[in-house]
Amino acid sequence: MKLCNLVAIGLLAANSAFAGPLTGQTLGASGGILPITPSTAVVADATVEFVEDFSFDRFDIDFSESGLVVVTWVSSGRLSHGAIDNQTYTDSNSTIQAIEGFNLISSSGVTGIAQSDLSFTTNSVTMAIGSGAIWTSGASFTAQIVFAEDPAPVPEPATLAMLGIGLAGIAAVRRRRVGDVLPSR
Question: Which residues, other chains included, contact 86 with Cβ-Cβ below 8 Å and sequence gap of 6+?
């Protein structure tokens, strides 16, 4: 019973903290009509990583740890024919999984955005939304970065050997205890 409890606790502990493909990764920003600040940022949920500032209005660009990207137009309440002119966000340290897609999921309060405005390479995503896009205050769009699947890890021979020795030890202890309890004939 104790072994089962330890295994259950171990599985719960291993799954309690989700770490997405972008967790703690450093992204670099380039392009845009105005400079994007900061030029590099570490991805952390609940944090806007990048801003393209137009004095009274700005675009907030937020990357979640899972690869969800939310771009929000924060404005003084006016309509804008705004462009996100070839903003590219690149894996600064070449440590993230390969990117296999960058998909538009939804938009709210903005017209003129299409899937064709989003592109990717294996280590970067680019947003090239033209000046035909019309943004209202608080408008946003959401896109998802699609990462390549990691291949399943192959156990090392030493790991399998230790597992086998451990199972043999458990069987020997169990056999010994069963032998102690049964009366001899």
Answer: 31, 32, 126, 127, 128
Task: Return the H-helix or E-strand segment holding 46.
Answer: none
Long-range contact pairs involving 166-172 (C-beta distance under 8 Å, separation at least 24)? none
Contact 27, 49 (CB under 8 A): yes
Rg, the chain, Cα only: 26
Confidence of residue 18 (pLDDT cuts 50, 70, 90): very low
Helix (H) or strand (E) holding 70: strand 68-74
Q: Which residues contact 32 (CB under 8 A, 6 or more apart)?
A: 52, 84, 85, 86, 87
- Give the type of residue at 49: E
Q: What is the pLDDT of residues 132-168, one digit of tens each?
A: 788 888 888 999 999 988 666 666 777 777 888 888 8
Residue 120 has pLDDT above 90, yes or no: yes
- Cα distance between residue 118 and residue 112, in whole Å: 13
Q: What is the pTM of this model?
A: 0.68
